[in-house]
Design goal:
Blueprint (H helix, E strand, L loop, with lengths): L39 H14 L28 H13 L2 E5 L3 E7 L4 E3 L4 E2 L3 H6 L1 H7 L3 H10 L5 H5 L10 H25 L4 H4 L18 H19 L8 H27 L5 H20 L10 H11 L11
Antiparallel strand pairs: 1-2, 2-3, 2-4
Helix pairs in contact: 2-7, 5-10, 7-9, 7-11, 7-12, 9-10, 9-11
Length: 336
């Protein structure tokens, strides 16, 4: 059975209760292959079968086929169950990143292979007074809840259907791209939670009883928005994959217009997802702006990790190349 079989309506993505919440790693289970039953009856049946298959004394020596294991180097990741492989990939990205700063200003540092360097300018959190000034905007946005409630609820968890409306994402034709998006979201979620903890800015309903959030307010601070960070990182990843699969030297005027439309829609979708959190009453507009800034830094880190010929210890570069091959990138590794 394929990892993606039985995904009626993308149900395999269930378990990601809110991108921000990300309680433990339970959400990864949505990607696991269905496990065979190990009831008492089947266990007894297996034991009886073993008695037949291994009857008699064991041979003096046993040797595995010379071509096992099938995969070596970076391709050894193919032998790892997808849910555990993603844990490896996220850990690979996180291992190169650290932060330093205080409640008002913090820097993101990343190891580029030779040294640890600051990624862009430091992030600065708005003052509490600035959030108070935006309360009226959050309250006013509440009038849009009737029109937006379906979107808000559908976007509580990472929902690829929205992105699949812009580009032809499918578990069977773009499995590596979907896995790359999951890794990007998980990477962003880990980083954004650390930044939230450092800045520790209040949610709108902590400052005003008039906000009346549409959904349960997450149990952590507001700035920057996790949804904004993750959605803008996803938009950047998809735009990069598509553009690199269609080099500028090979683009016709019609193709350039198609790419422009895709870029515009991906950004609009990311903005909409972020804005829906303001409409829901759990974020300020400034939270979304902070998320966009953080997403830019994370995209830079991910881009720096890409290599044309990834080695066994470059898990992320391996996955990126496989995803790129699904969009026509010639330099990307293809499946065996």
């Amino acid at each position: 059975m394929s990892t993606f079989d039985g995904w009626d309506g993308w149900d395999g993505w269930d378990g990601w209760d809110g991108w921000d919440g990300w309680d433990g790693w339970d959400g990864w289970d949505g990607w696991t292959v269905a496990k065979p039953s190990r009831s008492n009856a089947s266990g007894l049946a297996l034991a009886r079968t073993r008695e037949l298959l291994v009857a008699g004394p064991p041979p003096a020596t046993l040797a595995k086929p010379a071509n096992w294991p099938r995969y070596s180097g970076a391709d050894a990741l193919l032998a790892v169950a997808p849910n555990y492989r993603r844990q490896i990939l996220v850990a690979d990205l996180l291992s190169r990143v650290t932060m330093k700063g205080d409640r008002d200003r913090t820097s993101l540092l990343a190891f580029d292979g030779t040294r640890v360097a600051e990624v862009g300018e430091p992030m600065t959190a708005p003052s509490i007074a600035a959030f108070v000034e935006q309360l009226h905007e959050v309250e006013a946005k509440g009038t849009e809840r009737s029109a937006r409630s379906a979107e808000i609820m559908a976007q509580l968890r990472f929902n690829p259907m929205f992105w699949g409306n812009v580009l032809p994402l499918n578990p069977r034709t773009t499995p590596n791209t979907l896995e790359l998006l999951l890794v990007a979201v998980a990477f962003a979620s880990n980083i954004v939670q650390r930044v939230k903890l450092i800045f520790n800015r209040p949610r709108p309903n902590e400052l005003s009883p008039r906000i009346q959030p549409l959904i349960t307010t997450p149990g952590f601070s507001a700035y920057p928005s996790g949804h904004a960070t993750e959605s803008h990182l996803v938009a950047t990843v998809l735009a990069t994959l598509v553009r690199e699969g269609m080099p500028a030297s090979m683009q016709s005027p019609e193709q350039r217009e198609w790419l422009a439309q895709v870029d515009r829609m991906l950004k609009l979708l990311a903005d909409r997802i972020a804005d829906n959190r303001v409409v829901a009453g759990i974020h300020y507009p400034m939270d979304g702006e902070g998320g966009v800034a953080l997403a830019t830094k994370l995209a830079h880190i991910m881009n720096a990790r890409r290599t044309a010929n990834p080695t066994a210890d470059d898990a992320f570069g391996w996955l990126w190349n496989r995803a790129a091959s699904e969009w026509g990138a010639e330099s990307a590794a293809t499946d065996r």
